[in-house]
């Protein structure tokens, strides 16, 4: 049994609802979920804040269906880019486990695929894709290990959105041939989530083959996670962690030891 | 002798409020699924899926549903299931979603899977017990179900037992 991952759960300030969504996800069999913080610079007073501390959410994380481990929750940042100046790698960005961009124009899509240091590129699902997907940027993104994301919540909500989602997904599949595609929820309510096998089957409607559709909810998501980890660490080879509070203890020990040594010296003399 | 090959989809109806499951009946689920198929795949899909389509079983306690359709078109039916957001029953809309647990070739394999799945659920729910007394109570309830009905109905009763536990465990 594969490990299923849902990389897009919309962040709400309502803690209760967030807990509900995560519990439902655990019940459905997702072993990892990511809470998505969206930043759109076109709206006023938007800035990238620090991610919410995850251990605050639950005292005890719900157990995943069919496994004995508790669910893993991550933080994800999505930057809506409509101008080139919007996306910058700052220290705040590095605090998130996964970084995604939502390019609005073809130029920015090209830049996102080729140069931006991101893990996921979102595809529009609520409107007709404003530009065509061209081969070179898509191939470049696949080579760099960047993933394309289709969220299915709009398709569930509304009939016209569903048409946009399916047509945009198909036009992406034409160029990417089903490689490096992630299907994620984007759920705002617990009832908007769907089971992983249902999503794998829904992938068939999006033009994915059976194997690719299953990979889109399991292995590709894992690859995106690992790609995100390489940003935090030195290319995934070395990982540095601050030790919690060794200095205070050591000082105490030294203080205790110090006089003892002196005492020993004085005794010797 | 060649028989018609079918696929049985074992689905779970997930609702936010457990008590609203009691409102559902087989007809309501039938119309909801059929509506979703024709919504997603149009007349063509609805016509293909309606061949030997049936709701074989519905458990109003646990929300378990068996759907049957022809083997050749079950993917059409399955891909329409995620688009169901509510089931209308007795004039009330029950917001819910279908979670497909298992797809089998016979209803027997699905039943076997369901029993295994329900025992798993029971173990999951037992964690929520706060005291040893509660745990004993659950054990007694399960035993009383299975001893009462030996033979054929044993398995079905077992399910019901688990269903009660689920409701009880969450409260």
From TrEMBL, chain A:
It is found in: Nucleus, Nucleolus. Component of nuclear RNase P and RNase MRP ribonucleoproteins. RNase P consists of a catalytic RNA moiety and about 10 protein subunits; POP1, POP4, POP5, POP7, RPP14, RPP21, RPP25, RPP30, RPP38 and RPP40. Within the RNase P complex, POP1, POP7 and RPP25 form the 'finger' subcomplex, POP5, RPP14, RPP40 and homodimeric RPP30 form the 'palm' subcomplex, and RPP21, POP4 and RPP38 form the 'wrist' subcomplex. All subunits of the RNase P complex interact with the catalytic RNA. Several subunits of RNase P are also part of the RNase MRP complex. Its main location: nucleus. This is Ribonuclease P protein subunit p30. Belongs to the eukaryotic/archaeal RNase P protein component 3 family. GO terms for biological process: rRNA processing; translation; tRNA processing. Keywords: Acetylation, Nucleus, Phosphoprotein, rRNA processing, tRNA processing. Component of ribonuclease P, a ribonucleoprotein complex that generates mature tRNA molecules by cleaving their 5'-ends. Also a component of the MRP ribonuclease complex, which cleaves pre-rRNA sequences. GO terms for molecular function: RNA binding; structural constituent of ribosome. Pfam families: RNase_P_p30. InterPro entries: Pol/histidinol_Pase-like (IPR016195), Ribosomal_uS2_CS (IPR018130), RNase_P_p30 (IPR002738). Residues 241-269 are annotated as: Disordered. One of its GO terms (cellular component) is ribosome. The keyword tRNA processing applies.
TrEMBL record, chain B:
It is found in: Nucleus, Nucleolus. The keyword Nucleus applies. GO terms for molecular function: ribonuclease P RNA binding. Its main location: nucleus. InterPro entries: Pop5/Rpp14/Rnp2-like, RNase_P/MRP_POP5, Rnp2-like_sf. Residues 153-171 have a biased composition (Acidic residues). GO terms for cellular component: multimeric ribonuclease P complex; nucleolus. GO terms for biological process: rRNA processing; tRNA 5'-leader removal. It comes from the Eukaryota. Residues 150-171 are annotated as: Disordered. Keywords: Nucleus, rRNA processing, tRNA processing. Component of ribonuclease P, a protein complex that generates mature tRNA molecules by cleaving their 5'-ends. Also a component of the MRP ribonuclease complex, which cleaves pre-rRNA sequences. Component of nuclear RNase P and RNase MRP ribonucleoproteins. RNase P consists of a catalytic RNA moiety and 10 different protein chains; POP1, POP4, POP5, POP7, RPP14, RPP21, RPP25, RPP30, RPP38 and RPP40. Within the RNase P complex, POP1, POP7 and RPP25 form the 'finger' subcomplex, POP5, RPP14, RPP40 and homodimeric RPP30 form the 'palm' subcomplex, and RPP21, POP4 and RPP38 form the 'wrist' subcomplex. All subunits of the RNase P complex interact with the catalytic RNA. Several subunits of RNase P are also part of the RNase MRP complex. PANTHER family: POP5 HOMOLOG, RIBONUCLEASE P_MRP SUBUNIT. Belongs to the eukaryotic/archaeal RNase P protein component 2 family. This is Ribonuclease P/MRP protein subunit POP5.
């Amino acid at each position: 049994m594969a490990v299923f991952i849902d990389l897009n759960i919309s962040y709400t300030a309502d803690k209760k609802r967030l807990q509900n969504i995560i519990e439902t996800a655990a019940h459905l069999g997702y072993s990892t979920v990511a809470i998505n913080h969206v930043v759109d610079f076109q709206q006023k007073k938007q800035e990238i804040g620090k991610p919410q501390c995850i251990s605050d959410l639950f005292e005890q994380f719900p157990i995943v269906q069919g496994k004995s481990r508790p669910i893993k929750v991550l933080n994800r940042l999505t930057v809506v880019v409509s101008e080139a100046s919007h996306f910058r790698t700052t220290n705040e960005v590095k605090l998130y486990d996964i970084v995604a961009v939502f390019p609005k124009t073809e130029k920015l899509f090209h830049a996102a695929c080729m140069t931006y240091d991101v893990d996921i590129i979102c595809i529009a699902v609520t409107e007709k894709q404003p530009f065509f997907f061209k081969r070179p940027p898509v191939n470049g993104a696949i080579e760099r290990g960047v993933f394309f994301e289709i969220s299915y919540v709009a398709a569930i909500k509304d009939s016209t959105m569903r048409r946009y989602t399916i047509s945009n997904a198909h036009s992406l599949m034409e160029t990417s041939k089903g490689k490096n595609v992630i299907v994620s929820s984007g759920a705002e309510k617990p009832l908007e989530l769907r089971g992983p096998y249902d999503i794998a089957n829904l992938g068939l409607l999006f033009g994915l083959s059976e194997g690719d559709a299953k990979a889109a909810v399991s292995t590709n998501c894992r690859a995106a996670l690992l790609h995100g980890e390489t940003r935090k660490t030195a290319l995934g080879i070395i990982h540095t962690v601050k030790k919690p509070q060794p200095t205070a203890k050591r000082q105490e020990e030294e203080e205790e030891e110090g006089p003892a040594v002196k005492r020993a010296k004085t005794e010797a003399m | 002798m060649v028989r018609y090959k079918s696929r049985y989809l074992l689905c779970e109806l997930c609702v936010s409020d457990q008590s609203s499951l009691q409102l559902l009946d087989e007809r309501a689920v039938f119309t909801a699924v059929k509506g979703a198929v024709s919504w997603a795949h149009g007349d063509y899909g609805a016509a293909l899926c309606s061949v030997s389509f049936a709701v074989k079983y519905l458990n109003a306690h646990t929300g378990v549903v068996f759907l049957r359709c022809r083997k050749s078109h079950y993917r059409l039916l399955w891909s329409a299931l995620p688009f169901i957001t509510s089931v209308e029953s007795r004039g009330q809309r029950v917001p819910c979603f279908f979670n497909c647990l298992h797809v089998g070739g016979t209803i027997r394999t699905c039943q076997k899977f369901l029993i295994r799945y329900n025992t798993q659920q029971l173990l999951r729910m037992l964690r929520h017990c706060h005291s040893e007394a509660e745990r004993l109570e659950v054990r007694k309830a399960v035993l009383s179900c299975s001893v009462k009905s030996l033979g054929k109905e044993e398995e079905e009763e077992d399910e019901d037992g688990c269903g009660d536990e689920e409701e009880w465990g969450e409260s």
